[in-house]
Amino acid sequence: MITMLKTIPRHKLDANAWDVCVATSRQPGVYGYTWYLDAVLPAPGWKWVGVVQVDQTGTYHAVMPVPLRRKMVAGIPYEWVVHQPFFCQFLSVFSADELPDTDSFFRHMVEQFRYGSLYCTNQLPGIDLPFASFQLRTTHVIYLSFGYEVIYSNYTRDRKQNLRRAQRAFELDNRWAIVESSDVEPLLALFRENHAATIDGGVADWAYDMFRNLAQALHKRGLVTLRYAVYNGQIEAGALFICDDRRIIYLFNAASATGRRVNARTILIDQLIQEKAGQKLIFDFESPEKPSIRKFYKSFGAVEEPFQAMRWNRLSKLENLLWTGWRYLNR
Question: Going by DSSP bridges, is the β-strand pair 247-255/60-73 parallel, antiparallel, or unpaired?
Answer without folding.
Answer: unpaired
